[in-house]
């Protein structure tokens, strides 16, 4: 198993480490020209502060990477970008680029789940025998060579940080009894959340409404077919990218899709609001297909929405 170690700025780390509700983060790259492809989903991505603070201070499980317009990156991740506002995020990126950036300009996005931030007394000093880190980061083998010691240190640091909470990334490999050796590195299934769900669904539908083809990204929302509060997972197959008004109707049961992925609109829309002509015109329209057939809405999720939400 490999890990990728990337240097990061103190303000990004300090902002996120001060928050208690952060599990998904966007490790952004200012250049926005090349999609990150150094890891497989489930491998570790680690943060190291820039010199002279030569310490590994946290990390996460790599889930995916993309190139997104700045405005969409904020819409998907908000404060998980490591900034309190879009304006602040823009300033941080402009400081790295040394040039102005528009909301439509592309940045690199590295999505990490199960993120962890080590307290100051658990920071791991970067050893001379580990690979030298360039601006773009460096890969290290966690099984053989000096990287194996790094994995053990990470396990110990995460366990001490919060020994009673669930730590799916590392703690499942910790020994049950003192004196037992630490477990070996393993790939972890990234645990996707709401923010990653937004990004994956938005990208799966090529940033266009599945019903209307609308391309104005701020007007689009990733809709759960089976809501998360009803045990619907954050999976692409449980999502549709919809224009905001259609999303509202979908969630309230005035609109659904059938198992042939055709739009169905409830007649109650006209009865209850004495209107709805524009929406009823979508009846029978087929959803825009996703380029990857595996990302199409799942049959079981569709049936659940038909039976439990739709006001037929």
Query: How far do the termini sit from each other?
Result: 51 Å
Helix content: 25-40%
Oligomer: single chain
Overall geometry comes to elongated
Kindly provide the radius of gyration, computed on alpha-carbon positions and rounded to a whole number of angstroms.
22 Å
Supply the number of helical segments.
Answer: 9
Query: How big a fraction of the residues is strand?
Result: 15-25%
* Uncertain ranges: 163-169, 171-182
Mean pLDDT: 90
Give me the strand/helix succession: EHEEEHHEEEHHEEHEEHHH
Instruction: Please state the structural category.
Output: alpha+beta
Largest β-sheet summary? 7 strands, mixed
Give the beta-strand count: 11
Describe the overall structure.
With 312 residues, the chain is α+β, with helices and mostly antiparallel strands. Helices cover 26% and strands 21% of the residues. The protein has nine helices and eleven strands. The protein has helices at residues 10-17, 70-77, 86-97, 147-161, 194-204, 244-251, 268-273, 277-280, 299-308; strands at residues 2-8, 25-29, 44-49, 55-69, 106-117, 124-125, 138-141, 220-224, 239-243, 255-257, 263-265. Strands 1, 2, 3, 4, 5, 6 and 7 form a seven-stranded mixed beta sheet that branches. A two-stranded antiparallel sheet has the order 8-9. A two-stranded antiparallel sheet has the order 10-11. Strand 3 (44-49) and strand 4 form a beta hairpin. The chain starts with a strand and ends with a helix.
Please sum up the structure shown:
This protein is of the alpha+beta class and 312 residues long. 26% of the residues lie in helices and 21% in strands. The protein has helices spanning 10-17, 70-77, 86-97, 147-161, 194-204, 244-251, 268-273, 277-280, 299-308, and strands spanning 2-8, 25-29, 44-49, 55-69, 106-117, 124-125, 138-141, 220-224, 239-243, 255-257, 263-265.
């Amino acid at each position: 198993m490999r890990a990728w170690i990337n240097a990061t700025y103190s303000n990004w780390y300090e902002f996120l480490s001060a928050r208690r509700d952060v599990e998904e983060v966007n490790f952004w790259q200012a250049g926005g020209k090349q999609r990150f492809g150094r890891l497989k989903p489930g491998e570790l991505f680690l943060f190291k502060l820039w010199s002279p603070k030569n310490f590994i201070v946290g990390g996460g499980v790599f889930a995916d990477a993309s190139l997104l317009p700045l405005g969409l990156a904020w819409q998907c991740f908000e404060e998980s970008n490591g900034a309190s506002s879009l304006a602040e995020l823009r300033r941080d990126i402009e400081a790295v680029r040394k040039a102005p950036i528009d909301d439509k300009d592309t940045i690199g996005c590295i999505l990490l789940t199960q993120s962890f931030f080590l307290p100051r007394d658990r920071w791991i000093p970067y050893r001379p025998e580990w690979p030298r880190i360039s601006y773009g980061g460096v890969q290290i083998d966690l099984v053989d060579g000096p990287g194996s010691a790094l994995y053990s240190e990470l396990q110990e640091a995460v366990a001490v940080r919060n020994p009673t909470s669930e730590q799916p990334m590392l703690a499942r490999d910790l020994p049950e009894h003192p004196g037992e050796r630490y477990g070996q590195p393993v790939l972890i299934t990234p645990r996707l959340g709401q923010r990653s769900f937004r990004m994956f669904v938005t990208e799966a539908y090529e940033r266009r409404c599945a019903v209307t083809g609308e391309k104005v990204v701020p007007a689009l929302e990733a809709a759960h077919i089976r809501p998360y509060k009803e045990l619907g997972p954050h999976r692409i197959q449980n999502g549709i990218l919809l224009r905001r008004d259609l999303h509202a109707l979908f969630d309230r049961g005035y609109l659904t899709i059938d198992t042939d992925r055709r739009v169905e609109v409830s007649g109650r829309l006209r009865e209850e609001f004495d209107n709805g002509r524009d929406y009823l015109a979508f009846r029978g329209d087929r959803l825009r297909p996703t380029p990857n057939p595996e990302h199409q809405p799942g049959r079981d999720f569709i049936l659940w929405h038909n039976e439990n939400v739709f006001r037929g």
